[in-house]
Amino acid sequence: MATTSTTVERMNTVEMAFRVGSSPFFTRPKISSGRVRVGYRIGETLFAGADPDSFRGILHVIGERPGTMHHAYSVYITVAKGKVWAEKGVDHDITKLVSSIADTALPPKEAARETLTIIREVVGRNVSGSRRVGT
Question: Is the separation of the CB atoms in 81 and 53 below 8 Å?
Fold first, then answer.
């Protein structure tokens, strides 16, 4: 994968934000013009020393293309065990997506529920009420 110098600069800025912040969970760096894979690199940095058998995750909230008049956004959900993050094995193949979140499409409240359902399913928890499992 080719990485531009601009992407590397943004990644370095984000790493600093996470290292300096008192609680990485609540640190929300803003990356403009970044791609989803930048988030994977952030996760690799954050979770490099995590318990190899515990789950860790990144939620990317990304605005969808302008001009759709819906002002929609998507949530990219990437959850993997610490070992996968440490081995730099995270890519699109394990990322789930909740898209078209807007008042005129999928309501934000329902999207939040669906995001939590997906996370629970990935970590192997029983999920009731999921429209994806039909219960």
Answer: yes
| 94 inside domain | yes
Instruction: Return the number of other C-beta atoms located less than 10 Å from residue 127's C-beta.
Output: 15
Q: Please report whether residue 89 resides in a domain.
A: yes
Q: Is residue 132 a part of any domain in this protein?
A: no
Backbone Cα Rg of the chain: 16
pTM, rounded to two decimals: 0.69
| pLDDT for res 62 | 85
Handedness of CA 58, 95, 48, 121 (dihedral sign): positive
What range defines the domain where residue 39 resides? 5-122
- The 10 Å CB-count burial string (b at 16+, else e) for 29-57 is eebeebebbbbbbbbbbbbeebeeeebbe
Residue 86: name the closest of 54, 37, 58, 47 by CA: 47
